[in-house]
Amino acid sequence: SKLWWRLSEVSPLAEHAVHT
Amino acid sequence: VAALIWEQDETGSETLRSNGSPGWHDETGQLHRAHALTWQHPASGTSGVHDHADPYRNLVLLKVRRRDRSIHPVIDTIRYGVKRKHHWFWIDTGRWPYAYGTADHRGEIVPAEATWIRSRVEAPALERLPYPAVIAEGYFGADGVLPRFTRDTVTGMISDLDELNSHPATMPGEFPTVAFHGDIAVISWQQHSLSDERVLEIDRCYPDAEGLYAIGAYQWTWSIT
């Protein structure tokens, strides 16, 4: 089964995690 | 290492948050979390988040390259999804290691065993106009029921929205717009500022195996009229 997130919410979080 | 932290919050919602430092905070000072959007089935007490994060596996590592080189690191998958103007990020919890990806539309609305019953539904996003639908019996999402509509009904929504959007009393961006691109219903919002006017696509809805559209699922709050 899949869990679904809005990409617009996940992508800034992911960039934040990568860049700090 | 750079990762998204996947966990269940106190409300039972499945969330992702950044492990970057300093932390990512929202306007109220709380850690910003992205909540998974999924179904609830109160009668059985189940929900789409029953495969919740394993405390030993709850990091979504952003840069790890799998042994299978055809699988991209998560951060590349996310960036590529943004570039392709996708709307959804998914994690398949059914196997380990978890599969993940992005999509322009949402495939699964409720589990396959759901039964569908005839109803009439309305949503504030569509000025509470009533539409015939089938709804997944006993399932809820986005604070409402989860309906599917015929293409003819979606065509009716499109003309209703065109009328609402062209009404002089309507504020720009007050209502969404829907348009068919072939078989796909494309949902957008107008965004207006003093210097700029643009249309932002927020979702796509594909016809399912029965030719029905779960339009606005997990985006608009549908209720039974």
Pair of chains with the largest interface and how many residues each contributes:
A-B, 19 and 44 residues
H and E string of chain B: EEEEEEHEEEEEHEEEE
The chain-level structural class of chain A is alpha+beta
Shape of chain B: globular
Class of secondary structure makeup of chain B: mainly beta
C-alpha end-to-end distance of chain B: 50 Å
Report the sheet with the most strands of chain A, covering strand number, pairing sense and barrel closure. Answer: none
Q: Which consecutive residue ranges of chain B, at least 5 long each, have pLDDT under 50?
A: none
Which regions of chain A are unreliable across 5 or more consecutive residues at pLDDT < 50? none
- The helix content of chain A, as a percent range, equals 55-70%
Main sheet of chain B: which strands, in order across? 3-2-1-6
**In which range does the helix fraction of chain B lie?**
10-25%
